Amino acid sequence: MDRIPILKMGTLLLVTIQVDMHDRLAMTLQDDLTERIVKDRARGVLIDISALDMVDSFIGRMISNTAAMAKILDARTVLVGMRPAVAITLVELGLTLDGVRTALNVDAGIKLLRREAPF
Q1: pTM listed for this prediction
Q2: 71 and 38 Cβ atoms separated by less than 8 Å
Q3: Residue 68 pLDDT more than 70?
């Protein structure tokens, strides 16, 4: 897979990662997502990682950097569907996802975005 699909829902962008991420795919997603935030004037970004079994330090930093870029572009980011093993790995690696809000599922993520950045 060369690209991760980015779906537009009003002023929200939804990214559902269904494949294991490798470095090149992660960088492509970051570029595509920042371009779509500007193009679609998105106010929120929801990233669903429920299908990921593992997140390494590079992917963790990519998620954090993407959220920072989205914030600069006036969009809020919510990460949903994180499995306990992924959370444990991120903590063990010492990664903090600064600027990234989390929610258990897509519905809770959308509610959080609506409270923080009404769309």
Answers
A1: 0.90
A2: no
A3: yes
